[in-house]
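hey all, quick one before standup. I had two proteins in the batch that finished overnight and I want to keep them in one place so we stop losing track of which output belongs to which input. First protein below, input sequence then structure tokens straight from the run.
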Amino acid sequence: MHVGAIRLSIRLEAAAVIGFGRSMGTMSWNEAYASHYDEWSAHMTADVPFYVELARKADGPLVELAIGNGRVAIPVARATGQRVIGIDYSPAMLEQARARAAEAGVELILHEGDMRDLALDEPAALIYCPFRALLHLPTWADRRRTFERVAASLRPGGRFAWNAFAFDHRIAARLDGEHQDEPVPHTVRYSVGDNRIDIRFDDGARSSLWWATRNEWLGLLDVAGLELEALYGGFAGEPFVDDSGEYVFVARR
């Protein structure tokens, strides 16, 4: 079946809901954050060829969770010649992705929805979630549900790839409460008891992330029935060591 014929079945929440809010008391971002995404993500470029290469090897549908403005999906679509199915909870980000895809001359199949409710009519060959987006899910239950839905949505041998930062207490001590002008004026607050980072922009935009350890990520793979294929410490395939700052995971169903 051609990828364009795939119907994504995903339970949509009320249009006014933002972030991954559903039943949670805390939203992981507000829509104003979308206006800063280009500048905020400008430093993250090494992940694009990594995910592009995984997509080139995939024999079947490609799905990006938290597609944002299409920063990764557009190069993936261009390199593979396939339409990329993209899911995001933010209408503003999806509008950016739609405009950028049109400008680039590629087609993305965009859906506003919740990754925790992912379901595909045809199983995917690759599902990926770049730019630490899984950290917007605040609880173990949220992440477990997402991993279980990913596992159910992959074909046998299909891959799930994502990246997330490894918490560094030295960085936290240096940045906590400090106002920074780059890349966008903001202040970062660390709530260690909740494993949470709150980013507050000067104009009122906000975003929150909840970090996880390596063993937590491995536990999620285990409960979802996925197998670890590789854990890298960077997008060039560097080994993950004690002082690595990034988890780059590839798992298989």
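OK second protein, same deal, sequence then tokens:
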Amino acid sequence: MNPAPIHRPCPVCNADATTGFLQKDGLRLVRCDQCSMVYANPVPAEFVSGRYYDAAGPGYYLSAAKLESDYAEVRFERELGCFRRHCRSGSVLDVGCSSGAFLFQLMRRYPGDYRALGTDVSTAPLDYAESKGVPIARGDFLELDLKAFDAVTFWAVLEHLADPKRFLEKAWGALKPGGRCFVLVPNLDSLAVRLIGSSYRYIYPQHLNYFSERTLRRMVEPRFTVLETRTTHFNPIVIWQDWRQGGRSVSNAERAELLKQTTAYKQNPLLQPLKDFYHLSERLLAAAGMADNLLFVLRKRGG
């Protein structure tokens, strides 16, 4: 028998009063009446405990398509560029590192500049990361003894957490004074959400939190100073497919295959004219705050 779904207060301001935002199959999103944060409530217990991600590890995170795209040279080019601008060297903790691809790319591109450590709730991907030479810390991130890092990264992690503020508090404690924290989450104000709403594949049960620039800023500012904020990434293929399919549920296997496909497009030199147009479109959307993801660079306050 599955445990009962878990009800929770607003992950940003801890208030309970909400207004319904949308319903998609078994997913119920609400908007906080106090701070306007949109979040799933209630949420399945397996997402709160992390059991879902440990079970999904071998089938999704270690699928051939997912690993091929994650370890492709172009996969983390935006994240690496931003990270390098704000942290030129030092100790780096990647929370939710999955198969270790970001840290692998970081160490490969800048040998000797960084001391890396990854952690994740999913066991099998950590085994793979170790096989690629990525140092790993196993166990519950909130319980690990972690101190004196120059940077902590949350690449597409906070949207999956029932209590993201606790993870940010832990990151604050793990950082040196003035250390950097990097956060990437889906953008609730993106063009994709505006155009196709609940048909968008990234409005789905594994995503518990739906941040706007304003709500993410409100959550991080008690502990961090915001150094940079932007919107980034744009996948028109996803918008086209999801519009045509009318919000049909997309399997993990399909997500991995699309990631592999779009990665291959980026690596194909014959598609350079299309890539130039794509990058222009992404820059225009970013300027309007409507690209797919929000990217925040934070500096630790105090401590």
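Flagging for whoever picks this up: The chain has a mean pLDDT of 93. The domain at 49-300 is CATH 3.40.50.150 (Rossmann fold).
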